[in-house]
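Researcher: Quick test of sequence recovery. Tokens follow.
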């Protein structure tokens, strides 16, 4: 079952108009929520990013956060898998004709969920391979827009070359992956590109940064170049569906003797503990503390 504009219907019975601007222009934003043991992991962070995306492209949020949560809970209840990835898309809606400009329209809302099988730690110890490519995307990569033509071309090329991901660089500076954020470790310090117009502010990236800080690991949100990537002690990519993946080959060059590194291992274990914790009581939240932060603190106290 999927959700489309107020109705839960079979996927093959869910239709949109050819006038939908999501179809014609990719005029919309989306979110991917990981679900573990039927709990939404990082709910608030994902809903905040959805709101930021809608604001950025001037679409009024069609639902309150409580309503979104209700829809997500309902859609995951149709699926037997305990671990799922919910895809939620809001497009600007249908106009009466195809034109670049638009009036205020009723947004189209689509939600689906698919089962995911998180990879085991053992299966990750030898790491994954990636390719690198020049980042030719636009300068609003912080908006999670459905218009993903460049990203899907990079992903497809990586897949055809037998690689997990394409890591992108702009003016020789590593930005992110085609559908992930990138981290490196050099001399016990973790680096990742700072937030801004060149990268999507990944929710997994944010959780990793919090874990690293709470574990007193050195972490800097500083840009690094391709030479640093190629000479790194460890390379990882992060995303809601891939979690934290160690990368041991970049453009056929082997990193860290082809083995996942010790800092990845510590962060990975901590991330797994966070996933398994059930919903946290919001009454324990300290001011400005997100639920994930609280969980990290409770785990480490
Ligand atoms: N992609 N950067 C890009 C370009 C992405 O598309 C994604 C996620 C990320 C990681 O963000 P997060 O940790 O919040 O998942 C970074 C999703 C999973 C997708 O497009 O399916």
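Model:
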């Amino acid at each position: 079952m999927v959700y489309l504009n107020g109705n839960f219907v079979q996927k093959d019975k869910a239709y949109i108009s050819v006038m939908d601007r999501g179809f014609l222009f990719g005029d919309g934003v989306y979110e991917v929520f990981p679900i573990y043991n039927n709990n939404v992991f990082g709910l608030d962070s994902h809903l905040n990013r959805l709101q930021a995306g809608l604001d950025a492209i001037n679409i009024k949020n069609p639902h309150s956060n409580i309503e979104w949560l209700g829809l997500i809970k309902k859609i995951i209840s149709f699926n037997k898998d305990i671990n799922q990835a919910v895809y939620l898309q809001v497009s600007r809606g249908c106009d009466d004709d195809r034109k670049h400009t638009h009036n205020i329209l009723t947004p189209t809302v689509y939600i689906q969920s698919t089962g995911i099988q998180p990879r085991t730690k053992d299966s990750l110890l030898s790491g994954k391979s990636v390719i690198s490519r020049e980042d030719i995307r636009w300068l609003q990569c912080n908006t999670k827009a459905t218009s993903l033509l460049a990203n899907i071309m990079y992903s497809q090329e990586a897949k055809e070359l037998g690689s997990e991901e394409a890591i992108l660089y702009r003016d020789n500076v590593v930005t992110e992956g085609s559908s992930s954020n990138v981290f490196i470790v050099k001399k016990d310090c973790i680096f990742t590109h700072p937030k801004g117009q060149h990268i999507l502010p990944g929710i997994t990236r944010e959780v990793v940064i919090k874990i690293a800080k709470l574990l007193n690991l050195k972490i800097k949100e500083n840009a690094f170049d391709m030479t640093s990537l190629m000479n790194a002690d460890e390379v990882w990519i992060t995303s809601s569906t891939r979690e934290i993946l160690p990368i041991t080959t970049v453009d056929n060059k082997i990193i860290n003797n082809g083995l996942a590194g010790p800092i990845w291992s510590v962060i990975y274990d901590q991330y797994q503990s966070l996933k398994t914790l059930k919903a946290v009581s919001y009454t324990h939240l300290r001011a400005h503390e997100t639920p994930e932060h609280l969980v990290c603190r409770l785990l480490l106290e």
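Residues 4 and 209 are 35 Å apart (CA to CA).
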